[in-house]
Specification:
The complex is a heterotrimer of chains A (305), B (293) and C (264). By secondary structure, chain B is mainly alpha-helical. Chain B has 13 helices and no strands. Chain C has helices at residues 3-10, 51-58, 81-89, 106-111, 120-128, 132-144, 160-173, 190-206, 218-224, 247-254, 258-263; strands at residues 11-22, 25-36, 40-44, 66-71, 74-75, 91-94, 178-182, 210-214, 227-232, 235-241. Classes of the chains: A mainly alpha (305), B mainly alpha (293), C alpha/beta (264).
Chain lengths: 305, 293, 264
């Protein structure tokens, strides 16, 4: 056989992962097809009106005092804007800002507590018939506890937090509870899954040795898994807190007094400048959360290395 | 304290011990609860649990036809669900498609390697590179820090109702998030592969395209599946703000207190998300399996 | 051109009082040596003595802080851009940990050896759509190193020894004048160490490649490499035919005296 034939044979018989190939293909097709579906088509007729709309938005989004004095000098404008920001911050800004951050903290602490309780029963290893010692005859019902817990966690993280809060507002009223519970449920689902994956991907030596020494499920979890995985779990915890801040801003749109509430209120009053102020406040809150979370996670990783 | 460091090798966790950390977080939670006036009495005295009970009990019998005997909307209920699922998929896929483009651009432009690592600029150019890097990163952070719902509201206000607004609203923060993850993957990719290819005589661009991109590709693809799942949730929620996705119909039925219909939409959304989650899980497992050598 | 430069052209590598400093640390100090075309040389010496820096110097990945480094008559300092790439490309490097792209097939990893000789578009074409000749050329090289069957295998499914062969094939695909191997037999079992050294010497013998290998195993070094250069604390300790290396020389080269411990 010539080398050419040999290469052709090797090429024909090359190892292929059909699942990944097809998944990738279908995924790419889906992304492309969405744009070809024609669902996003925009009529060309009223672009003129839209452009006017846009101009009006840009004009009205300037701080009100600046709109009043369009001919003022730049220094005057700067002073006006600064005073206006101060006024906005005093009226509702500070209140909403603190409320938003507070909401995210309560929610993530609750979510963390919930997931610390749920992750051991959702872990495949810990709910195996005989964790880390597969050769031994073990429990018959623990695997079912695991399946049930994993199913509940999927449910918890699949429903968007905004929808959970939307359902809860009717029963609980326009206070912090619906938002806190919605964020806590959704994030407990995510943290529970990430945490249980940490346990399942843990190198076998520590828990395995403990099992060989005769430790039970709870002992392995608290003595073998928690100490070695704690800081990595905290990394996830702070990462989710960051997204909690982000989501807390918009949950206000359901009537809970976070930044989103005042954003919608300003929009309803057609105070677009004020609306933009709350958009930027939300951005600042998220960036602060981002910064704190990044620093903490960096320190945690460094401590671990 | 030489003795104690000998007795206890290894660093003490930052943030103190585990108990201290947990205690601190709990205290933070309690203070925050006080700040947002979280009153447990509300849950007992004021809450209208029967409302929620009614809604939850409808979970066992999701609607298959309209609850209203004389439906204001015409058509078959199941077909409407199908349409809502389809549009949720289309909106999410459209948004992710855009964010892939944006994310790759941000990922390349936002990595330390692109500015400083491979070409190793010196002198003034180093400062320029730092400035460029910081600017790109700042823009990414700003775009990411505004929630897609807020973007949608801003676009609706500025442009009026366009289907494109919802898609772009999702795509903007998602591009920045993808870009962030992508650039971090590039920066964390093994520097030795890059150095080896440089030693072979490869140019900076070649190292980037043939050395770094294929190395991070499996992780990027796995992450994309996860973002698609998030995109489905975002698209569904934007229905509350007028996009014709599952959230839109769900809110309509909720307004009419047709809880069985609400559950039908909810189950559709759950099925969609669980399906993508499972699919992504399979792909992720296959992509990240490495030989043990 | 003066007579020294003319002499340098005869040799594959010629270092003249080459010193390399990283900040305050001196990695190499006034190293002078000449390696002729087709010669097979081993660099021996304790870890951290400067062997890797020396190999980087021979690859123009590192320029001397002081002194000269002539690589086949060209100085790394005198060229830049495409010429520098061409210079690096003419010297194949097999790194210690192989550094292959794990998610690609073996074929693509080997094709990357040519990057230094191609423009961006040409390399794009060759990597995305490798033609029949390229595939056959890579297959021939893989057969040479003993893993022809693995042409289309995903690189991360290969064993460590197979990956090393891919790295060697990648370096050979550059069609280099010289081959540098950084600790190719560190942390491998004796059988594989022997096989790897035989492969490297056979390859260099077949195509008259200059071969520079850094290693620790004195028996292996003496068996396969006619000339050994001992490096200690950044300086040439002994440069002699391997027959002239006694056990006492190796003892002295690797001997850790108390002052060395304090320095480390």
């Amino acid at each position: 056989m010539t080398r050419g034939d040999e290469v052709k044979r090797l090429r024909r018989e090359r190892p292929k992962d059909h699942v990944v190939r097809w998944s990738f293909g279908i995924f790419a097709l889906l992304l492309g097809a969405a744009w070809l579906s024609g669902e996003f088509e925009v009529g060309t007729i009223d672009w003129e009106r839209r452009w006017e709309n846009c101009q009006r938005f840009l004009e009205k989004a300037q701080p009100f005092p600046v709109q009043q004095q369009p001919d003022a000098s730049w220094t005057t404008k700067g002073r006006l804007v600064w005073e206006w920001i101060g006024g906005q911050w005093q009226t509702h800004g500070r209140e909403a800002f603190v409320y938003t951050l507070g909401l995210s903290v309560v929610a993530i602490v609750l979510a963390g507590m919930g997931s610390l309780l749920s992750l051991p029963v959702a872990s495949r290893q810990l709910t195996a018939a005989s964790p880390w010692l597969p050769g031994v005859v073990g429990s018959r019902w623990w695997p079912w506890v695991g399946r049930g817990a994993r199913f509940l966690l999927i449910l918890a993280r699949s429903i968007p937090e905004y929808m959970i809060a939307f359902f809860l507002v009717v029963s609980l009223g326009y206070n912090a509870w619906p938002a806190v519970l919605a964020l806590a449920i959704h994030n407990a689902g995510i943290l529970g899954r990430l945490g249980s994956e940490l346990v399942d991907n843990q190198p076998r030596n520590v828990p395995g040795t403990l099992r060989e020494l005769g430790a039970g499920r709870r002992q392995v979890y608290f003595l073998g898994s928690v100490p070695s995985l704690f800081s990595r779990f905290l990394v996830f915890f702070f990462y989710r807190w960051e997204t909690c801040v982000r989501d807390a801003t918009v949950l206000g749109m359901l009537g809970i007094p976070t930044l989103g509430y005042y954003l919608l209120e300003a929009r309803a009053k057609d105070h677009l400048d004020s609306m933009l102020f709350f958009v930027l406040m939300g951005s600042v809150a998220v960036m602060m959360g981002d910064l704190v979370s990044t620093v903490v996670r960096w320190r945690l990783r460094k401590g671990e290395a | 304290m030489r003795e104690s460091s000998l007795a206890l090798p290894g660093k003490r966790a930052w943030l103190g011990g585990r108990r201290v950390t947990l205690g601190l977080l709990l205290v933070a939670g309690v203070i925050a609860a006080w700040v947002v006036r979280l009153d447990p009495r509300v849950l007992i005295a004021d809450a209208q649990w029967h409302q929620l009970g009614k809604f939850l009990s409808a979970a066992f019998s999701p609607a298959l036809v309209y609850e209203d005997p004389t439906p204001a909307r015409d058509g078959v209920f199941l077909r409407e669900i199908g349409e809502a699922i389809y549009l949720t998929l289309v909106y999410a896929a459209g948004a992710i498609g855009l964010s892939v483009i944006g994310g790759v651009a941000f990922g390349l432009a936002g990595s330390t390697r692109a500015w400083l690592g491979l070409a190793r600029p010196v002198g003034v150019w180093r400062k320029v590179a730092w400035l460029g890097f910081t600017c790109v990163r700042a823009v990414m952070t700003l775009l990411r820090s505004v929630h897609e719902i807020v973007w949608a509201i801003v676009f609706l206000q500025a442009l009026g109702a366009v289907p494109l607004a919802a898609v772009i609203a999702i795509a903007i923060p998602y591009s920045a998030t993808l870009g962030k993850v992508f650039s971090e993957l590039i920066d964390e990719a093994s520097p030795e592969i890059a150095e080896t290819l440089r030693a072979n005589g490869a140019s900076v661009v070649q190292v980037y395209v043939f050395g770094l991109l294929p190395t991070v590709f499996p992780d990027v693809l796995a992450y994309l599946f996860y973002r698609f799942e998030c995109g489905l949730r975002s698209a569904a929620v934007l229905g509350f703000f007028g996009a014709p996705t599952l959230g839109y119909y769900l809110a309509l039925s909720w307004g009419e207190r047709h809880y069985h219909e609400v559950w039908a939409y909810l189950y559709a959304l759950l099925a969609l998300i669980v399906a993508v989650d499972t699919w992504g899980g399979v792909v992720r497992r296959r992509l990240t399996t490495r030989s043990e050598s | 051109m003066n007579s020294a430069a003319a002499a340098a052209q005869e040799n594959a590598f010629e270092l003249g009082n080459a010193t390399v400093r990283f900040g305050d640390t001196v990695a190499l100090q006034r190293v002078s040596l000449a390696i002729a075309e087709g010669e097979r040389v081993g660099f021996v010496g304790p870890s951290g003595a400067g062997k890797t820096t020396l190999l980087r110097l021979l690859n123009a990945s590192q320029l001397p802080t002081e002194g000269t480094a002539w690589l086949g008559g060209v100085s790394g300092e005198s060229v830049r851009g495409d010429q520098l790439r061409a210079l690096r490309s003419s010297i194949g490097l097999v790194p210690q940990r192989y550094h292959l792209v794990p998610s690609l097939r073996v074929l693509h990893n080997v094709l990357m050896g040519k990057l230094g000789k191609q423009g961006f578009l040409a390399s794009m074409r060759s990597l995305l759509l490798p033609n029949q000749e390229e595939q056959e050329a890579v297959h021939a090289l893989l057969e040479e190193v003993g893993i022809g069957e693995k042409l289309f295998a995903k690189t991360d499914t290969l064993s460590g020894g197979q990956q090393q062969r891919v790295a060697i094939a990648r370096a050979l695909y550059q069609r280099p004048r010289a081959l540098l191997a950084d600790e190719p037999v560190a942390s491998v079992d004796p059988t594989r160490a022997e096989a790897t050294m035989s492969l490297l010497t056979r390859l260099s013998g077949e195509s008259k490649l200059t071969l520079c290998v850094s290693l620790h195993d004195r028996a292996l070094a003496k068996r396969h490499l006619p000339r050994l250069i001992g490096i200690r604390a950044g300086q040439v300790f002994k440069d002699a035919p391997s027959g002239a290396w006694s056990d006492a020389d190796f003892e002295a080269l690797y001997h850790l005296d108390s002052s060395a411990l304090v320095d480390a």
